[in-house]
Structure formats: C-alpha cells, structure tokens
Request: fold
Amino acid sequence: MTTSMLGEPIARREDPRLLTGQGRYLDDIGHRALAAAFVRSPHAHARIVDVDVTEALDVDGLVAIYTHDDLEGRVGEPLPLLIPHEALTHGRTPYALAKDEVNHVGEAVVMVVATDRYVAEDACERIRVRYDFLPPVVGIEAARDAALLVHDDVPGNVSAHLVQENGDARSAIDAAPNVLELDLAIERSASTPLEGRGVHARWDADDHSLRVYTSTQASTSVRAALAAKLGLPPDRVEVIAPDVGGGFGVKIMHPWPEEVLVPWAAIRLGREVKWTEDRREHFVSATHERGQLQHVRVGFDDEGRLLGLDVTVWHDNGAYTPYGIIVPIITTTQLLGPYKPGAYRAEFFSLYTNTVTVTPYRGAGRPQGCFAMERTMDAIAEHLGVDRTVVRERNFIQPDEMPFDHGLTFQDGRPLIYDSGDYPATLEKIKKLVGWDDFAAFRSEARAAGRRVGIGIGCYVEGTGVGPYEGGFVKVETDGTVVVATGLTTQGQGHQTVFAQVVAAELGVPIERVAVTTGDTRRFGYAVGTFASRAAVMSGNAIAIAARKVRDKALRVAGEALEADARDLEIVDGTVRVVGSPPGAPGTSIPLATVAVLANPLRYAFDREAERATQFGGPVDVSKPPVAEGDSPGLEETGYYSPPRSTFANGMHAAIVETDPDTAEISILRYCVVHDCGTLINPRIVEGQIHGGVAQGVGGALYERMVYDDAGQLLNASFMDFLMPYSTEVPVVETDHQQTPSPLNPLGIKGAGEAGVIPVSAVIASAVSDAEGFAVTRMPISPSDLHELRLRHSSEGGPAR
Amino acid sequence: MSEQLYEVTLLVNGVHRSATVPARRLLSDFLRHDLELTGTHVGCEHGVCGACTVLVGGRPIRSCLQFAVTVDGEEVTTVEGCTRPDGELGPVQQAFRDCHGLQCGFCTPGFVTTITAYLHENPEPTADEAREAIAGNLCRCTGYQNIVASVLRAAQLRTGSTEAAAEAAP
Reply:
C-alpha cells in the first residue's frame, strides 16, 4: 500500500455509496416533514393588488399560508446584497416573498405549507393573486434603450457602471496602423444541475437550535445569513450541505427566498418543513447567466500585435443583483486570456431586465470574455491573412515574463497578476493534438467529397483559487482512523477522494483510513464556499497545512515515546518509525493510533489502549504539566490557507466541425483540450471535470438558450424545450496535460473545475467561421441561425468556402 | 375533501413492499417517500431526464410518469437492487466506479437501471451502440464520455461474471 497518493488516478471513494442508492440528497431527508410550495408570479412585471386565499382554506392537509404581510422583522426585509461594490450604485435585492411588486415570472409571492407536496400544490392552485400589469423590460437592447424601467428608481436600468483602464487604450487604437471593430452577443443559459434547489429545516424548541439541510455551495455563509435573518445566535444554527446533485454555480447564490422561509416556517410551526424545487421552478426562480452584448475596438500592428484594446460590455443582470457584479468584472478582466493587450480599457454596464436574476454559472463571465478576445484574434488573423495560431502566439505573455501584472483589479479585489504558465508550450501541444498543420489537406479531401469542414481554436486563462481563505481540520483518532473536515461544500468534484489523497500523502497513512467531511458547519465553521475553481486549491492546501502540523506533532509525541529525535522519524503506512530501522525491530516504531492515545493525557481509561495514557499508565516526567504550555491534547490540528491573490490556470481547445451544406447542421468531428492546472492531485478526476465542462460548453455553443418572449415569459422552461445535450450531442474529448505548478501555494495546484466550459463557444464559433468563410458573432448558433447567416452573406456576395 | 386511498403492493428488489396511497401518487414518490427507497431520483418530473428510471418487469420505465396504483403487483427493480446478492457493487455499478462514470451521482441511478436492462438485451454493444443506449438520459456532470466507457466495461464485467459463474457451476 503506497502512501504517496498525490497525482494518482485512484477510483473515487464516494462512489460505492452513490452507486447503490445510498447517497443522501436533500429530498432524501425528512420523509415526515411538512412540504412547502410557492405561488409564483405568472407575470414579468406587475403590482400585487390583492391576495385571496379563501378557496385554499378548505384543502384537507393545509397547514399554513404566508404572504409578505406575515413576515416579521428582518425576514420581511429585502434579502442581502452579498458582494457590495462601489460601482454597484443601484443594487436591488428581492424580498423573500414579493412585497407590492413582482419583477420576473417565477418570483415567489405566497408560501403554502401542507402535509405533503401534492396537497400544498392543491392549495397553491386555489390562491388568487390579483395583479396590475406593468410593461416588462426584456432583452439587453430594451434595457439599454431604457424606454421602460424595471425599477422606478433606477435610471437607465443601470445597476452598475465600471471602467477599468491600463494605459490610454483609445489613443493607442487611434494611432494604430490597423483598427477593427466587432459587435458580439452571447445568449442566456443556466447551470441546470440535475438536482434543483431544496431546503429542509428542523427546529429543536428544547435545545433552542435550528438544523438546516440545504442543497448549497456555501453552507457556512447560509448559516451566517440565516442567523442574521432569523435573529438567532450563529452557534444555535447548523447548516449542512448533504450530497448535492450538481451545482455549477447556481447554488453559490444564497440565501434564496426559500432558504430563509423554510427555516422561518419550521420555527414558527414547530415542525419539520421541507421544500424541494421542481424543474419548472428551477427554470423560473433560480438563476441564469451568460447574456451579454459586447463591442470591441482593437488596434494592432502589421504583425498582428495588439497595441490597444477597448471593450464595452452590456451585461444582463436580470431582475435583481443579490450576487453583485462579479460576472461582468470577471468578463472584463479574464477577457485578456494569455495575451498582452497593449493599452486596455474595459467598460461595462450591468442592466436590469424583467427576467430571472443572473448569478455565476460555471465559467462565471469567462466564456463571454474568452469569446470576445478569441473572436478578435480571429478577426485580426483574417484581416492580415495570417494563420490564427500565429497571431495568438505573437501576443502571448512569455514564460519569462511571469509573474505578469495586467495593472487591473480582479474579482477578488486584488491585483490581476498571473503567477505562472507556459502558453507557447500549450499552443504547441494543442496544434499537435488536433493536427492543426495538417488540416488544409483534410479540408481539401473533404471538399472534394462535397463536405464542408472547419477548424477552430480558443485560448483562455482562468483565475482560480480566489480567497479569502479556506480551512482544514485533521485528526488522528485513537483507532488510527483520520477524520478530515473542511467547510466548503461538494457537488460531485470528488472531494472525499482528493482531500483524502492529500492527507494520505502528507501524513503517511493508508487512504482507506481517511474519512473526509465537507460542507457541514457542525464539523468546520469557517469557510467561504465552492466556486471559482477554488476547492482543490483552497481546501486542498489548508488540509495539507493541517496534516503537516499533525505530522509534526505525531513525530514529537512518538519521539518522546521511542526516546528518539523527531527528526529521525518518519510515518509510513500509519506507523511512526525510526528512519532506516529494520521493520519490526523493537523500540523503533509505534502505530499512529497509539501516538494519538499518548497525545491525549487521560485520567480515565476507556479501553486497553487508553490505559497507556492514564496518569498511572506509564513513566512520565512529573516535573512537567501533562499538556505542555502552548500545546493542546489530542492529535488534531486546524490549518488555514489564505493566498495573496488568485492562481491562474490556462488552456487551449481546438475543434474540427462539419457544417451540412443543405441543412446547416453543425457536427463536431473532433474536440481537443490541452490544459494546465498546475500539479494534479488526481488526473482522472481532473479529466472528468474537463469532459463535463466541455459538454456544458457544447450546450452553450450549439443548443442551450433561455427563450423569453416580449412579455417576459420563459418559453422553454422544461427539459423538453431547453436543449441540454444528451450523449449523442457531446463529442469525444481528447485531452493532453501541461503542468506548470503554481508558486503561490504549498501543493502547486491550480483550479480545474470551470476550465472545460470557458473557450467552447469561442472555439466552435472559430471553427464554424472557418468552415463557412464568414465570421460568427453571436452564440449559441443553431442550424437555423447558420442558415440565416448563409442567406445574409450570400446576398452580400461573400464567398462560401 | 379527503382523498380515496389504495393499497399498493410491489415486489421491490425481491421484497414485497406495500403502502396505502392516493391514486395520484407517482411511482417515483411511492418508492422514495412511502417505501423510503431514495436511490431513485427525480430530475424533471416530465419524463425527459431519465434519473427516475426503474425496471418494471425488467423493462425500464420513467417512474415520474407512472402512478403507483397502475403497477400494483408488479416486480420493480431500483438502483438499490442492482447490487450483487452479497451487497457488493453489481457489474454496472462497478463499471461506473472503474471508469469514473459519475460525478455528483444524481442522474446515476437512472443510468444504472437503464444500462442494466440494455445489457440484458444487448450484452456486447459497440461503442456507438453504447452511446445510443444512454441517449435517453441526461447527465450534467460527466459529458457522457466515461458513461459510454462504463457501458462497455459493464458488458465486459457481465460476460466475465457469466463465464465465472458457468465455470463455477457443477
């Protein structure tokens, strides 16, 4: 049994449980809880005139009906604005239940609690809400025109306006020998985990404590929010993320209206209450992302080197801004990718619309930024008649220029400084993997057979592992098991495996002895959350730091027991031994379990092993206190990792597509990924993250869009109509790795969770443009979109390839 | 207005289980909340995602589209019943573990039951057939690549275990 587990593609330790139906997701908890259901606004914009519950009162099994009037104290106030920013001058958040006005279809208006969900929905159907309609603002153009307003007191529908600039971009562009302008658009999509949201709450009136299970990416922060809202001391509130059936960003948003109301009702009723979101609710009352319009103006020399880049983004933030303006900040900073932009100016307007609120979805603004930059790179290449990879290479930040300071402020409020990366090496690898230089021959062959094919490329840099911190707890039990806890949550990333690998490697114990708990405030109270590809970087390093402290202490305690110098000891397979001693030699080794016993001086023995630690159990130095000053009992330590700034992963994708000359169907023939997330803890899990990210990217590039009509109705709010890809729509992903360790953290790792999704729209747009001979500027692109583009370009007389 | 109740009895994973429920109780809810077999998951409640797939008489059906009363007396297999008799991972489950065919695990039970039924009818699929076999189930985590590999791996494991069983037979 090896203990050097780091970097091994071991099978996941959580799988047997999940594969046999023993997982415990939110709706698997609380079979006897009361069920909540919500009456939601059917209108995008309206004033609430009256709520009539009379007919619902006869429903057998009804327990309670609540409207905003029932919400006392802070529960009745607007939900928190989680990430304030000075540019967010007109931030607005919803009430837990709408007060006076609704601003999108799906906004919760009435809460019903009943004996089960069927009955609760019966009651919802019988509640009559009268509305005065207001004209809705739908779409970014309508929001920008501002002929109508979402919120009366927000002029221009602008929640935030921010300009970041490094150098004088506009002058640099004006003086450049070549100038291009691009207008680009990305439509809305959404995280769409297979499990929706859900909350279960249990109030213990005797203990005066609240336990809440919620399908979240941020259990500690939910606890803080609930304690504040409900007026409870935080230490009387426990929040647990059970098994979570996917997050992809949407579950970092908190506290949801339902997340406040379910515990509130549980306290009020003195009963367990549960709400499990249904699929339509998820479409219309969770959150979306991606929708942006962009204008790019770029100046470059005759070699294609950027001299100045000026980008304006109109970002659709939906009805409210509870998560602040993180998404457009990320778009405008991460847009830069692996390139030196010359002088750079980025300006964004974050705009209200009467549609579902926008918060981060995997990639969190990066796919849009990558799309803008990569479309610009392709446009420069086309303008100069230079190969697309050559233009990119000429603009790369070189390895010897690291760390590279962009002179901007990143989403964590810290300077945008890339820590490491070897972009030319990554480019070489992706060109080789996809066969970039051989593509012309393939195209000729295909053309001769009447087929239309194209190749595309996209490069990205992703700031991962944002602060402020995460913590890790590592404890060796007296039976030799090692319990590990970290506060951030898990939604399928394999944390029970990768964090166990870290501990096994750092502590020298068999991985089978390590048990990891995440997202449970009872086990670890300080955490930020799982987002921004930060879990492995943040908690991985925090746990490594804690494990190293435990190791130091174990060696010290064992050294005293073995009368050896701690520096001469090592831990192998869960046993502390003198380095170089023959196995089994007496007095040269001691099991870690025994060290754990000795580390906790006892008065009372609970078993034979424990007798060794009691006051008469063995020879001790009676001149010293049993627990030395500054020391603590037990073999357990807590460690925190707080980075000075983010660490920047990177990667490049390339795809070969075929477009049908008649039907305009787009098929992905090959999809290749080279990525660099520093040192790998578990390559198999990283590959899985890449595969899944690419699949979501393909969805966003070819199939998924939130279709709103002019009245603000979401027309495709079901899996029948919102086209999430099945296995038949997702290509095989070919991968290669580049490993440039991060100098910023002890393990040298960078995040990998979002990488797969970031450049896909850019890559597919590049490849389809290459196949068709005209530039694709709006994504996603459906066959009918492509057909329309062909008609427009042929009427303009452009050549088809 | 109280609802009329019906006793529904199923043979679930080889065990007779019954509960008294209204006519509108969905089979998915019946399994999950009345029998507390929560391995079967509900992802969309409109028969598209396939997470709730269970086998009724060996055939895969969407339990969110079926009322429990309509399958009264039937034999039902859920993901909990796809293990080996000793409780260890069954061939499809083992294949998913070997191939990293799951991430969050929420859609997985529907894939496991679907593939179990599929391999019963088509024990040696090609890679293309494997991809087609799972094309009625949604997964948001894996990109399907490792699930396709899991189908092929499960086919190997099944054949192996059939051969092993044949060898072990007197």
About this structure: The two ends of chain B are 62 Å apart (CA to CA). The CA atoms of residues 53 and 62 of chain B lie 5 Å apart. Residues 83-168 of chain B form a domain with the DNA polymerase; domain 1 fold (CATH 1.10.150.120).
